[in-house]
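Two proteins, back to back. First:
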Amino acid sequence: MFNLTNNVSAILFITTLINSFNIYISWQRRKAKGGIYIVLAMLGVAFWTLSVGLDYAAIPISLKVFFEKLEYAFHNSTIALLALFSLTYADYGDWLRKKSVKAFFWIVPISNILLAWTNDWHGMLWSGFARSEFGNNTVIFERGPAYSWGLITGYLMVLIIILPLWRATHKGSDLSRRQARLLFAASILSVVGNTVYLLGDQQLKGVDWTPIIYSILGILFMLALYGTRLLDLVPIARYTIIEQMRDCILVLDENDRLADFNPAAREVFGISHEHFGKKIKMVMAHLPEVIESFSSNPGSTQQITVVHEGAPRVFDTHLTLFTDNLGKPYGKLMVFTDITKHHQAERSLAQRLSEIQELNKDLRESQSQVVSQQRRLAKIEERKRLGRDMHDSVSQTIQSLIFYSDALMTSLRKEQFQKAISVAERIQESGRRALKEIRLLLYETQSQEANEITDLVAVLKERFSFVENRVGIQTDIVLVGALDSIPKEWNENLFWMTNEALNNAIKHAFARKVWVRLCCSPQRLELEVSDNGKGFDITKARIGGMGLDNMHERASLLGGTLTIESQPEKGTTVRFGAEIPSR
């Protein structure tokens, strides 16, 4: 029933053992991308070569036909699984989601298998069987009309295996191209074996060399599995991602073994092709910060510092997980972006900012000292001015009072009563003037410092109460809006402008009534000081007289404008307006 001594069967049984070992190896790496397809394909190859070996050992035709049907089942399943692996390996896995592609990979192998197992009913695949002249264990299978269908679909599957692998030999890293070349060579050998069977001479009739060629294919797979660690590594689909990026890139498999890297990573981390397939903890033992970065959350960014050629280099790290069509992780991609120059610029900027802050602090202290000195000088100047005012106004008024008093006494002695009454009126007027000037000098002596003025209206009302109201001058103050929107530092200049205008109304205009109007909005402030005094001709006024220079200078400091309207015997109005700066 079986002749197990022929050379063909022996070779096929050895091939089966080799493929069984391949099954064991691929099973250890079944969770890698496309790994399950390789496991099932190696399983199919093992049963296929075993069936072919038993087929060549079998003697009865019926038994040989049975094993041929098994061969057909395992052959069609195997090439379909290898086609699925080829597409997945070359990163065409998205195609497998299409309904038409799924239907193709189900319909084609199943239709061929059904043709073989139902051939006894229709004879469309094999129309007859005849003994070969080369021995009783070889049989010629006469081809039926459906044999062409099996031939076309079989080579279509082989084409699907070859083309993606051929594409994979021209892209990716050196490692992935080396893997693809081995797989491509193996797939070409399977085609060669089948072609020899179809086109060989009569001495080869009845012998299918395809599974024998798979012994060589198995050896190539062994080299791929061990020599390049095919299923240990994540296939790299895009050359530009790995080879041409300036960022350092490390790729790990699901077991944290080094799968790939680009030239930038080779230079910075000091790694080589000898480190492929080794644990990252072993490869990067000299750089623990790199190892730790792989423990970060996917999608997050961390910053690490690596010493390269004696100088620190700063990197932003970004971890990405590779997942298959089912969402299962099968690898990791870590991108190290060199931000050393940016980091150095930030540090330099922070240092300059610190220096500027220190300089600003010193400047504020110096400014405070200057302001304090200016206040001291201002007080000295104010005392000098008060002294001059005392001499120019109060002293002269008192001198007038003494002179008029002597004249009054003389008139009374001479009984010149009309003249005495006139002199007495002059004494009364001089007394009132002296009272105004003394009250004004006392107020200015006791006036608040600039940094103490927080409520402008309250300070002005206090002045009215201390000066104008006590010397018989009517006063009025009107506020439209609120002064909350003006800067606090404005209060000083606004007060002294108003104070100067009120002083002029008392000293020079001899006003009997004064009023102040403040109109404030969030964007603008307007100040108006008016009196009903004797007024003056502006065109003839002495430049800088009556404190006009001081008022214009303070108005300029606030970024506003100051105007004065006056006519003889029609009073005087001082107006100030300025835009309020936004806070």
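And the second protein:
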Amino acid sequence: MYFIVISFILNFIILNYFKIDLKLINLKPLQSRKNQYVSMLFATADFIDTILLHLEAGSNIFHSFKNATENSLNEDLKRNAKETLILYSMGCSFSDSLKNSINEKSDPFYNEMVECIHLSLLLGTTLKENLVQLSASLRIRAQLSIEESMSQAPVKMIFPLVFFIFPVIFILLVSGFIQDFISTMRF
């Protein structure tokens, strides 16, 4: 029993002496960036699905894009799409306003969607099929990102397992032997 108490006191002293920080503060910004990445993927896929829904209802691409902009819940995506609509209302064609709205400051997934729409309009390919494929690929990327972060969770558990759980289990298993050994040494 004394051995367990002494080992806990020694662990406490070692942790305080070496100033080991167990909060893992550096992982939080990375995790929040990853969550923003996944949420942006899903928001862009939902935006594309809203465009597809309006295209299926018989609207043209401009009205579908405008309705998807109004119904979008993501503020960054809505801001970028409104910039495209402002360019269109200033007299540019819809294809030119799409091309001009692509910039490095906006979201890369939004840029990918706009490039897909612009190329479909420019080349005359079917817009619905291209948008369906793009939406599916964005959702697959989001699912893969989620699965990747889930697969990293067991690796993060190795540190507490090795440094805290195994020594405590060892102490609990060996404490009976140590007590018997001490009692036999007394004669």
